Amino acid sequence: LTENGYKATALTGLPTKEDWKAILRGGKTVAYTAGQTILKQGDQLQRLYQIISGACVVSQVLHDPAQDSRRVLALGELRTESTFGEVSFLLGGGATASVVAKEATEVYVIEAEYLKRLFNEAPLVGGRFFKYLASVVALRCSQAEEVAAQPPPLQAAAKAAGARTPGSRRRQGLKALDKAALFQLQEQQAALPALA
Predict the structure, then answer these.
(1) What is the average pLDDT value for the chain, to the nearest integer?
(2) Judging by beta carbons within 10 Å of its beta carbon (0-12, 13-18, 19+), is residue 44 exposed, middle or buried?
């Protein structure tokens, strides 16, 4: 979310430097130690996060009601300038995954309440910012699809032999995440009044 973190693209209507200054004015820096939870799956916090320094591990607890079991799925690692919290910010629900500091980490945090006030005062800033968030989520989905489509050679060999690999479970988890997010988005869109 930092000005430097924003990369120019061919898209138009994204936040300007002035927009970013106004958006970033409402944030604060928070320091975390290795192993400290930054965001817990299910938390109803409406915040956006960007890593200033350090690294974080992202994981998700998957529940299987049929077998009354749960397992933790490692989704990946986030590093400097990575953002998270967009899905729960956009959909208004709980966090879809947990984020834990892998090492000493500083994170820039912006509360949704600040952004709501800002966007009420400056609706065009809000429109440009939501377009930016949509592009971040679309890029993340595209990257997840690329990873899922190209398994590492050793995983491909194990899969050919019929073994279940960590990568295959990760791809299943990503597909489940995509389906859950799509379902929530469809519900949100169905509840919106028609614009005419």
Answers:
(1) 75
(2) exposed
CA dihedral 116, 122, 124, 125 (to 10 degrees): -60
Q: What is the reported pLDDT for 152?
A: 55
Cα 158 to chain centroid, rounded: 30
Q: What are phi and psi of 17, to 5 degrees?
A: -60, -40
Question: Using alpha carbons only, what angle is made at residue 195 by residues 194 and 196, rounded to the nearest 5 degrees?
Answer: 115
* Tens of pLDDT, residues 15-33: 898 998 999 899 999 999 9
124, HSE (Cβ side, Cα atoms, 13 Å): 4
- Is the pTM higher than 0.70? The answer reads no
8 A C-beta contact, residue 184 and residue 93: yes
